[in-house]
Amino acid sequence: MNCLVDGTIPPSSGLSSSSALVCCAGLVTLTALGMNLSKAKLIEFSPLRATDVKLPSGAVFVIANSCVEMNKAATSHFNIRVMECRLAAKLLAKYKSLQWDKVLRLEEVQAHLGVSLEEMLLITEDALHPEPYSPEEVCRCLGISLQELRTQILSPNTQDVLIFKLYQRAKHVYSEAARVLQFKKVCEEAPDNMVQLLGELMNQSHVSCRDMYECSCPELDQLVDICRSFGAQGSRLTGAGWGGCTVSLVPADKLPSFLANVHEAYYQSSDRSRAPEQQSLFATKPGGGALVFLEA
């Protein structure tokens, strides 16, 4: 299959351009094979299943580019977070007398124990300490040698890491997963203060990304604060972090003033070279998603 790919998403902006390419390729392949697949909003991976979620009608999501590019391939931030989550999962599994050497993901520990995300947060409090772990302490906890840790568990580009923040990473992952489910629940129940509740969940998410997972950056934090100060009910980083974009939940009636104020406060007040405004700051509503156009 030969494909030509084109697009206008700003590079390294955290807008899931790689995921968009995967969705596009999947959709094209299904169409070529004469198959259909419903496009849902909540996607769970273990097991893989998708559920429709109806988002609020009185608000829009505004994307704002921090103009800080994050080159995933040139840094080890992502690999270190993956490894910290893996080590946290193994220590939690060992604490609960599970077969820790087979465990790779935090979700597996929850699944094996058959408990809620809230219970996993309590177990994390009991099993892990907030102080960073050294490789030597990880080895003591698991009963393995430093050589075994480096060759059997750590990846080549994380073998020289001196500290692992296992408590913080596990707390973020379990609490973020709980926020996703709570977001879905609020959307389903649609209370009068729905937009406010969803915004609070987004704000909590950014705080956790910033403080517990440490995947934000000063520019993202500044942009989130600016967005909230000009009327966003909630604002948080989106994508992989360490740069890229924020996403804000803004009441529709505040949108014109919000866009003008954020543009002035973040993009015009800085001496740094900023991307063109139409690519840096724009509102979006839930739509039909990816489509296939067939020429007659």
UniProtKB/TrEMBL annotation:
Keywords for the protein's UniProt record, in alphabetical order: ATP-binding, Kinase, Membrane, Nucleotide-binding, Transferase, Transmembrane, Transmembrane helix
GO biological process, one term: galactose metabolic process
Domain of life the protein comes from: Eukaryota
Membrane-spanning ranges: 18-37
ATP-binding keyword on record: yes
GO molecular function: ATP binding; galactokinase activity
Domain (GHMP kinase C-terminal): residue spans on this chain: 196-267
Pfam family for this entry, one: GHMP_kinases_C
A GO cellular component entry from the record: cytosol
Record domain GHMP kinase N-terminal: where: 4-45
Similarity annotation: Belongs to the GHMP kinase family. GalK subfamily.
Protein name: Galactokinase 2
